[in-house]
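User: Please predict the structure of the protein below. I'd like the answer in structure-token form so I can feed it into my own downstream comparison script.

Assistant: Understood. Taking the following sequence of 131 residues as input:
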Amino acid sequence: MARFDANSTLKRLQNRYRLVVMNDDTYEEVVTFKLSRLSVYTLLCTIFVLLTGLTVALIVFTPLKLYIPGYGDVNNTKDLRELKIRTDSLEQQVRYKDQYLESIRNVLQGNTTVKLDTTTLKIPKPEKIND
């Protein structure tokens, strides 16, 4: 198993390389960059942190945050709950009225069927008090 040598790793990161951009037709050097692995790594990390920061800032400080599921204005959430409760109670009232009107319609048309109560109640007889 190879041993890890911190000095050789650091030297590899600091080795200088040259990146040359050339014109393909004339072989003229257009741009030359002197780079190391460490500088490329640092540049990529900086770009990543900046892009992440800009994205977070864009979401936090603009109305885009309202499009994130579960993230909304507290007042809007409270209002939506209140409206849902009110809608449910109104739907129940409409059902009760429909049942009432259907019962009245049946009575007026003579379509009523009387359901007799066939349960017997055992009511105790009141005791007489003799004076």
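That's the full token string. Residues 73-108 form one domain.
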